[in-house]
Amino acid sequence: MQGKGFIKFMAILLGIVCLYSLSFNLVTYNVEKDAKAYAKGDVAKEKAYLDSMATVPVYPGLGLTYQQVKGKEINLGLDLKGGMNVTMEISLAELTKSLAGNPTDANFNQALQNAQTQMNNGGKDFITAFVNEYEKLAPNGKLADFFANQDNANQLKANASNDDVKQFLSKEGNSAIDRSFTILRSRIDGFGVVAPNMQKQEGSNRIFIEMPGVQDKERVRKLLQGSAELQFWQVYQNEEVVNILENINKTLALTVKDTVAVTTTKPADTASKGSKLANLTKGTPKDTSATAKKAEASKINPLFSILSIPTYVAENNQQALRPGPVVGWTLQKDTAKVKAYFARPEIKSLIPGTMKFMWSLKPMEGSKVFELYAIKVSSLDGRPDLGGDAISNAMQGYDQKNRPEVTMYMNSDGAAKWKKITADASADPNNKKAIAIVLDNTVYSAPTVQNEIPNGVSSISGSFTLEDTKDLANILKAGKLPAPAKIVSDFVVGPSLGQQAIDSGLSSFVIAFIVILAFMALYYNKAGWVANLALLINLFFIMGVLAAFGAVLTLPGIAGIVLTIGLSVDANILIFERVREELAQGKNTAVAIKEGFKHAMSSIIDSNVTLFILGIILFIFGTGPVQGFATTLCVGIVTSLFAAVLISRVIFEGLLSKKANISFDNSVTRNAFKNIAFNFVGHRKLYYVISSVIILAGIGFYVKNDGLHLGVDFKGGRTYMVKFDKQMNTEEVSKKLVKEFEGEEALVKTAGTDNSLKITTPYHINDQDQNADKVVESALRKGLDGLGSKYSIESSQKVTPTIASDIIYGAYGAILFSCIVMFIYILVRFRKWQYGLGAVIALFHDVLLVISFYTILDGVLPFPLEIGQDFIAAILTVMGYTMTETVVVFDRIREKLNETGKTDVYGEERNTLINFALNSTLSRTILTSLTVFFVLMVIFVFGGDSIRGFIFALLIGRIIGTYSSLCISTPIVIDLSKNEKKAVK
């Protein structure tokens, strides 16, 4: 064998790289083991220990810190570690509107709305859709009239064409997405997530973010969705606004006839307490008990029945207006109603154009009462007195009373403006004014200015937690998002589910590995042990390469590794079966091994290339778990070829040089699959009938079940995995939840066991309110509480209809693109379009059969059979199996033709040739199928509930793929070549 030295060198080099990459896992394991020993079960203590080790060198020799080493180990995905992933969508509609100066033109705004509708239905390019829609609505309209404004003058001229505007908007849109990616990355880094995974979804306005170990989903949502638009505003004093509020109340009393009686809370007087913004202070009232308002009084005072004017008891024991910037107190549940009152046309006319109302960030301490502020708009363009661009840095710290605060540092221009603003506000010693610090239209603080602040250093403090100030400093430092960003998909996994997934994944991995080792050793004797050694080396290489690439290991990823190991024996089986054929012809062992490797190589290359192509397509079209599966599959195929073909060949050469006795069978397996001559071609019409019957049955159940059972990632909605302390009746749970979901569907199915339920609902999925998630979860918990059983929500997932439509079209694209690529590959390799078309027909046949079995068995099996992303991954993998086995048969046909010196044969001679190829490769087909089937069965039994539906698709797909490669893809070539036969005759 040529190149043995080079192969050994490459194996040693790859081994060193893998050892280095995997060593980081060992180092972090030792540090975390010490942390557990130190904490003795105290989670907070363990976290504090690890935080203290973050900058301490822990890698001997290299001097790498724990934080550096942690970032280099194999990252565990959410399903193994727990955590959260989200898909953020940058609002190009809001960006476009902002660039145009928020016009009120009806055609402009209708075009924006139409373009967004197209995006929701699976569109890709918002800017193109917007321009096209505007030109439809206003054929003679010029977009430059909107966008060639003062802010964009250096990029867009007044006479610019619509195409010029389109290019400008596309450039600004791409820039906004890039800047959003950078800002979100900074925010996440500041959040302290270890090894976050962020990806821009090319060709779209979406960013995928994965954060292992993160559980506080509300904090994450607030961190990511906040646009960070920091503003400093002057505010009206309470006495300046009270008359306006009284007029509003009187006007409402004339128009609101049926005001429902409500309760309110009226805070009593407290001494003014200083909260720090450098030398700024403000009063903080405390909450007292709520008093019920009578229905009649509510009709007389609609506004004041839910909004209290801040007052206090003066020295004369009379009620007096409380001085300061707070103009109202309202319970949290009534804030939306107050906002709705202010939005009425008849009320808007009573509010001066220089005034706008904003709520406080949080309720007052110990209450559910929010403060209302009246912001003073003093500039003609409606802009704040000072913007967030004045902030150069922000840091979390503590004030003089040891309360968490955020210190802001302004740039020179901002410091100069801030000096003037604070000087004006504190000029009158008898009437010092307040300044509101606003972030994303919410008042964080509105302290009264005591003195001029000359150096641009100020601080924000109040009723903040340490995490609040850390996040606020992080957001201010990272900067403002160029366009609003919203979460269109999220998935949360609890740490208990993660540990369960780790245990089940490792169990399936170990058992499947032992099954393969035992099979190879028993069937192929000593040669089987060579294959096992190559398999162990292959496993080491796979894990090392994944670690080196910084890949995220998920449960589908582990399934991909196990399947790769199962498939890697395919190369050895191909080689060993060819060696056995050569030995049967009387050749000695050395020659048989040489010829076996030579003749098997073409089939091995073709079959692995087809599967690798499928892996690439999976990676391109898939997201999350599908990409994890595809990554490990592609890495495994490459390392398998190296280990199973090259390293095993070197091992055989070494054994031969030592005159060792190498056996490829035993007394039981020696004559297996000998003298088989099954007429596959002659029975092909029977197979067509069998397949047709199954597909027709699938269509019947499709109609009966009102279509396919689409998962949440294909139709949009929220899914919750809930574990109860006892067995639950799914119908009873569903009825209870439908009531709480206001009649919306609640699909409840068991997930492996009767006390684990998967609950899916479209309730409020189209609601754009940021509190929609809380509303749905609150309704869910209310319904579950009424069942009288203890429960825990193990994980949650949300997918909006927008992203669901993208997944559907991506799935269609993956399958169609796969078929096209396979047809081209086979056409190039075998130069017969009938072979390529036969293989593609078999692929569609496989897809239809798998879907048919899903529709027939849905509701029969004790786990849900949903059509989702995992199912598409399974379909594509099944297609890979069929292609792999079909290519091996085609390769044998080509080899036989080459031996006879013919380019093709026709008629009965072709029937005989195809039957020969199918029978001569039958041992390899059956053995490989059984090996993979055993592996899949192990994963199915021990691999956990989260991938059971996925593995079931692979199991039936494995059976269908074997059946298809033997009975459909190759025999159908006969029927596709009928015209050729007639022409020959």
Automatic annotation (TrEMBL):
<feature type="transmembrane region" description="Helical">
    <location>
        <begin position="628"/>
        <end position="652"/>
    </location>
</feature>
<feature type="transmembrane region" description="Helical">
    <location>
        <begin position="600"/>
        <end position="622"/>
    </location>
</feature>
<comment type="subunit">
    <text>Forms a complex with SecD. Part of the essential Sec protein translocation apparatus which comprises SecA, SecYEG and auxiliary proteins SecDF. Other proteins may also be involved.</text>
</comment>
<dbReference type="InterPro" id="IPR005791">
    <property type="entry name" value="SecD"/>
</dbReference>
<feature type="domain" description="Protein export membrane protein SecD/SecF C-terminal">
    <location>
        <begin position="485"/>
        <end position="652"/>
    </location>
</feature>
<feature type="transmembrane region" description="Helical">
    <location>
        <begin position="871"/>
        <end position="890"/>
    </location>
</feature>
<dbReference type="InterPro" id="IPR055344">
    <property type="entry name" value="SecD_SecF_C_bact"/>
</dbReference>
<keyword id="KW-0472">Membrane</keyword>
<feature type="region of interest" description="Disordered">
    <location>
        <begin position="271"/>
        <end position="293"/>
    </location>
</feature>
<keyword id="KW-1133">Transmembrane helix</keyword>
<keyword id="KW-0812">Transmembrane</keyword>
<dbReference type="Pfam" id="PF21760">
    <property type="entry name" value="SecD_1st"/>
</dbReference>
<comment type="similarity">
    <text>Belongs to the SecD/SecF family. SecD subfamily.</text>
</comment>
<dbReference type="InterPro" id="IPR022813">
    <property type="entry name" value="SecD/SecF_arch_bac"/>
</dbReference>
<feature type="transmembrane region" description="Helical">
    <location>
        <begin position="926"/>
        <end position="944"/>
    </location>
</feature>
<keyword id="KW-0653">Protein transport</keyword>
<dbReference type="InterPro" id="IPR005665">
    <property type="entry name" value="SecF_bac"/>
</dbReference>
<dbReference type="InterPro" id="IPR054384">
    <property type="entry name" value="SecDF_P1_head"/>
</dbReference>
<comment type="subunit">
    <text>Forms a complex with SecF. Part of the essential Sec protein translocation apparatus which comprises SecA, SecYEG and auxiliary proteins SecDF. Other proteins may also be involved.</text>
</comment>
<comment type="function">
    <text>Part of the Sec protein translocase complex. Interacts with the SecYEG preprotein conducting channel. SecDF uses the proton motive force (PMF) to complete protein translocation after the ATP-dependent function of SecA.</text>
</comment>
<dbReference type="Pfam" id="PF02355">
    <property type="entry name" value="SecD_SecF_C"/>
</dbReference>
<dbReference type="Pfam" id="PF07549">
    <property type="entry name" value="Sec_GG"/>
</dbReference>
<feature type="domain" description="Protein export membrane protein SecD/SecF C-terminal">
    <location>
        <begin position="785"/>
        <end position="978"/>
    </location>
</feature>
<feature type="transmembrane region" description="Helical">
    <location>
        <begin position="807"/>
        <end position="828"/>
    </location>
</feature>
<keyword id="KW-0813">Transport</keyword>
<feature type="domain" description="SecDF P1 head subdomain">
    <location>
        <begin position="381"/>
        <end position="483"/>
    </location>
</feature>
<comment type="similarity">
    <text>Belongs to the SecD/SecF family. SecF subfamily.</text>
</comment>
<feature type="transmembrane region" description="Helical">
    <location>
        <begin position="531"/>
        <end position="552"/>
    </location>
</feature>
<keyword id="KW-0811">Translocation</keyword>
<keyword id="KW-1003">Cell membrane</keyword>
<protein>
    <recommendedName>
        <fullName>Multifunctional fusion protein</fullName>
    </recommendedName>
</protein>
<feature type="transmembrane region" description="Helical">
    <location>
        <begin position="505"/>
        <end position="524"/>
    </location>
</feature>
<feature type="transmembrane region" description="Helical">
    <location>
        <begin position="558"/>
        <end position="579"/>
    </location>
</feature>
<dbReference type="InterPro" id="IPR048634">
    <property type="entry name" value="SecD_SecF_C"/>
</dbReference>
<dbReference type="InterPro" id="IPR048631">
    <property type="entry name" value="SecD_1st"/>
</dbReference>
<dbReference type="InterPro" id="IPR022646">
    <property type="entry name" value="SecD/SecF_CS"/>
</dbReference>
<feature type="transmembrane region" description="Helical">
    <location>
        <begin position="686"/>
        <end position="703"/>
    </location>
</feature>
<feature type="domain" description="Protein translocase subunit SecDF P1">
    <location>
        <begin position="177"/>
        <end position="235"/>
    </location>
</feature>
<dbReference type="Pfam" id="PF22599">
    <property type="entry name" value="SecDF_P1_head"/>
</dbReference>
<feature type="transmembrane region" description="Helical">
    <location>
        <begin position="950"/>
        <end position="974"/>
    </location>
</feature>
<feature type="transmembrane region" description="Helical">
    <location>
        <begin position="835"/>
        <end position="856"/>
    </location>
</feature>
<dbReference type="InterPro" id="IPR022645">
    <property type="entry name" value="SecD/SecF_bac"/>
</dbReference>
